[in-house]
UniProtKB/TrEMBL annotation:
The keyword Cytoplasm applies. Residues 241-347 form the Nischarin C-terminal PH domain. GO terms for biological process: Golgi organization; lysosome localization; regulation of protein localization. This is NISCH protein. The gene is Nisch_1. InterPro entries: PH_domain-containing_M2, PH_NISCH_C, PH_PLEKHM2. It comes from Pluvianellus socialis (Magellanic plover). GO terms for molecular function: kinesin binding.
Length: 348
């Protein structure tokens, strides 16, 4: 252990997404290759001697206790646990959640030593995995609020690969088998239990971990929400969601020396007539079983919406992935442009 193929695959996956900045300590991890990466895992992260590193992925993550702080993490999947190697600045990002992370005081502020904290979710504590719409993200749920993490991969391939690897590792777990199902008769199967509401697709793994996928109703609910925001101008029957993608909105800081830009996570939804930007809650829905009250905010909050007919041009950057797109819309809403020009230039 490990095979040459696995070492090569993990080395290839050990690349930080270019759009996000990380601390020096995580840059050090990203610089490790081949056997050095495996030795780093066993020497600094692994909790038991005989666990094997199976998969590595870089992703933005959200924690249930700190839903507003998106942080970059190196996600390491082994045969015993899922490790989230985090930037140490995350501990100080939300003062209200200081009890979530316990950190010993250390005299390394002014030295060349850079600290990372590691959040560990043991596979034996894993209860369910919720896959987001179009595999843009997934949420891992353990037995308490401290053990709920969403990985915002923003990439269906990365999501699919991680889920496959996780299922393979879970198959190795020795868990007590589930009790034999009781044979149901026809009346109890099709009688009073039908609530008329379609549940999400559930796949119960042999390790008893649930893998939950969204159903068509979720897209229907989203289409209904979008139609509401359009002030009922569109017939819901003809409204089709053409694209759903987790993206970043670029806010340029004007007047700064380097004209720096901040990236705001947004959900972009394209219909046949409009383009929408939403703030989406990726961590609170569906509600965990232990939740006592609904989340403080809705799952989708509209940030901006524009008609496609008002779209003037689309500017495309020439850099490699991720591609930057600039949408330029006409400022004039629901007015005749020529009439205004005539008044400006030829009228009193």
């Amino acid at each position: 252990y490990p095979s040459e193929f696995l070492i090569q695959k993990i080395t290839e996956d050990n690349q930080i997404p270019v759009q996000l900045h990380v601390s020096v300590s995580l840059q050090y991890v990203a610089g490790l290759k081949g056997n050095a990466l495996v030795e780093f895992f066993h020497g600094n992260i692994a909790e038991v001697e005989n666990e094997e590193l199976r998969h590595l992925m870089w992703s933005s993550v959200l924690f249930y206790k700190t839903p507003n702080v998106e942080v970059m993490a190196c996600v390491l999947l082994s045969t015993k646990a899922i490790y989230f190697l985090l930037d140490d600045s995350f501990i100080h990002a939300d003062e209200h959640q200081s009890d979530f992370w316990t950190k010993e005081n250390s005299d390394c502020e002014n030295s060349s030593f850079h600290l990372s904290c590691c959040f560990v979710l043991k596979l034996n504590d894993l209860q369910s995995v919720n896959v987001g719409l179009f595999d843009q993200y997934f949420r891992i749920t353990g037995h308490s609020a401290d053990h709920i993490v969403t990985c915002l991969t923003r990439d269906s391939y990365n999501t699919h690969t991680f889920i496959q690897q996780l299922m393979a590792v879970l198959s190795l777990l020795a868990r007590t088998p589930s009790p034999e199902p009781v044979d149901k008769d026809f009346y109890s199967e099709f009688g009073s239990k039908n609530t008329g509401k379609m549940e999400n697709y559930e796949l119960i793994h042999s390790s008893r971990v649930k893998f939950i996928y969204p159903n068509e109703e979720e897209i229907g609910d989203l289409a209904f929400l979008v139609a509401e925001k359009m002030d009922g101008l569109t017939n819901l029957q003809s409204l089709n969601i053409l694209l759903y993608v987790l993206a970043f909105q670029v806010n340029r800081a004007e007047g700064s020396a380097q004209n720096t830009s901040s990236l705001q996570p947004k959900t972009l939804i394209l219909t046949s007539s409009d383009l929408f930007l939403f703030d989406e809650d990726y961590i609170s829905y569906p509600l965990p079983e232990f939740a006592k009250e609904p989340p403080k905010r809705d799952k989708y909050q509209l940030v901006d919406g524009r008609r496609i007919r008002d779209l003037d041009r689309v500017l495309m950057g020439y850099q490699t992935y991720p591609q930057a797109l600039t949408f330029v819309f006409d400022d004039v809403q629901n007015q005749d442009l020529m009439q205004n020009l005539t008044l400006d230039h030829f009228g009193e």
